[in-house]
Amino acid sequence: MVRDISCQEVASMMETSVPFTLVDVREAWELDICSIEGALHIPLGDMARRFREIDAEKPVAVLCHHGVRSRHAAMFLVAHGLRDVFNISGGIEKWALEIAPEMPRYD
After folding, report:
1. Looking at the predicted structure, is the pLDDT value of residue 88 above 90?
2. Whole-structure pTM over 0.85, yes or no?
3. Catalytic residues
């Protein structure tokens, strides 16, 4: 089952060095506009062939623009045996609004 996690919760995990993997499923052109440092970039279209790059022993937080693609990716990961998979609610858009207001945004 995919659980939602807020941007605030992810930011707290990053501040306290809780071990987890942040996976960004957006396209490369989207990352050129804005991204979160340290995220593993696997575009949604590449997930089926690259998901084994994700450390299955750590919790996984999946990010996209608004939370739709990341939910699909998270559901895929759970279906392929990963545990502790979270969808970041609101995606990078909400991250920019709540956590990093200096971050560029796009439509």
Report:
1. yes
2. yes
3. 64
